[in-house]
Design brief:
The chain has helices at residues 14-23, 34-39, 51-59, 63-71, 81-84, 187-198, and strands spanning 4-7, 28-31, 42-45, 76-79, 87-90, 96-97, 102-108, 117-122, 140-145, 147-151, 157-162, 166-173, 176-179. By secondary structure, it is of the alpha/beta class. The longest helix has 12 residues, at 187-198.
Amino acid sequence: MSYTAIVDYGVGNLKSITNAMGYLGLETRITGDAGELERADAVILPGVGAFPDAAERLRGPGLDRVLREQAEKKPVLGICLGMQLLFDGGEEVRHCAGLGLVGGQVVRIPTACKLPHIGWNSLTFPNPSPLFAGLDEGTYVYFVHSYCGMAADAADVLALTDYGVPVTAAVGRGNVYGCQFHPEKSGEAGLQILKNFGGLNR
């Protein structure tokens, strides 16, 4: 049976993602098992909390290595902190290495606006991607974050939002995708994004 593996490493909002995927009729398995990640058709890396803690929770059981291997074979989607972990590194609390699947660093949003950035903001799409098929410029999605990815290559930036400054809202490189916002909390637009992701390897 085909399924999307949702990585369980102790820092993810697993239930809402599982519910959203189930609503779309997409089979999921919550797992931290390397074998189940290998057998999955796609992988979602969720995440809430601080970058260093999450990175350590991936490294401890070797899930960082497993995720790098799977990203060479199948679609991988990082959500919120999960997207940030895709980058080379982050500066939250202290500098810490990420998965290195997307070039660049995660920094505190350089804005005069209040942080954390919480709420609905619209997207623009500087580079086309199947992840956003069927969505128009100006689509609103839901954010909760104080840090954002700064991609080394502008071609990897799939979506931007504005929060006093341009903020990277989504990235993509090869099989790897990331959403800084929460598609599972973003209504119909978010469901469309998850549906698009679910169809990438089927």
